[in-house]
């Protein structure tokens, strides 16, 4: 028995065996809340008090909620960044009105070549109609 400086009994934290923790975790996976009779049976089978089982479940639910909230926040950030990415992509499409318009058959090849370069990496490899006297290489 431990005593504090005033001679009163000092509360000690219980340490649970690996087997007890395993059984508590398995039970927690199945149900997050235990009713009185279930708690009594579990406590008896693990050699713990009902109060210990009750507090363990309270603490475990708190840990579970924090983890769940963190996962939800991470998922929301990921979704928000994906939304921003898609929004940015649609803004780029608006900037590219020239690219989305049908080509004018009378427009000059230089304009067409610039559009192709702008929208295709290394897109200079395509020459549509070489002018007379020019050779395509």
Automatic annotation (TrEMBL):
Q: What is its main location?
A: nucleus
Where composition is biased (Basic and acidic residues), the residues are 77-90
InterPro entries, per the entry:
HD, HD_metazoa, Homeobox_CS, Homeobox_NK-like, Homeodomain-like_sf, HTH_motif
Among the GO molecular function terms of this UniProt record, one is: RNA polymerase II cis-regulatory region sequence-specific DNA binding
Q: Answer yes or no on keyword rRNA-binding.
A: no
Q: Which GO terms describe its biological process?
A: cell differentiation
Which Pfam families does the UniProt entry name for this protein?
A: Homeodomain (PF00046)
Example of a GO cellular component annotation carried by this entry: nucleus
Locate the DNA-binding region by residue range. Answer: 9-68
List localization entries: Nucleus
| Region (Disordered) residue spans | 67-137
| Domain called Homeobox: residue spans | 7-67
Question: Gene3D superfamilies, per this entry?
Answer: Homeodomain-like (1.10.10.60)
* Key words of the record: DNA-binding, Homeobox, Nucleus
Q: Please, which domain of life does this record's source organism belong to?
A: Eukaryota
Q: What is this protein called?
A: NKX61 protein
Q: Which gene encodes it?
A: Nkx61
């Amino acid at each position: 028995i431990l005593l504090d400086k005033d001679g009163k009994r000092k509360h000690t934290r219980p340490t649970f065996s690996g087997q007890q923790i395993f059984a508590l975790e398995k039970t927690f996976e199945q149900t997050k809340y235990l009713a009185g009779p279930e708690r009594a049976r579990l406590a008896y089978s693990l050699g713990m008090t009902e109060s210990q089982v009750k507090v363990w479940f309270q603490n475990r639910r708190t840990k579970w909620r924090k983890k769940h909230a963190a996962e939800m926040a991470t998922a929301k950030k990921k979704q928000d960044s994906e939304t921003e990415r898609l929004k940015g992509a649609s803004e780029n499409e608006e900037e590219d009105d020239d690219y989305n318009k049908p080509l004018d058959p009378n427009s000059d090849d230089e304009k067409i070549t610039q559009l192709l370069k702008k929208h295709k990496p290394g897109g200079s490899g395509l020459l549509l109609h070489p002018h007379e006297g020019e050779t395509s290489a």
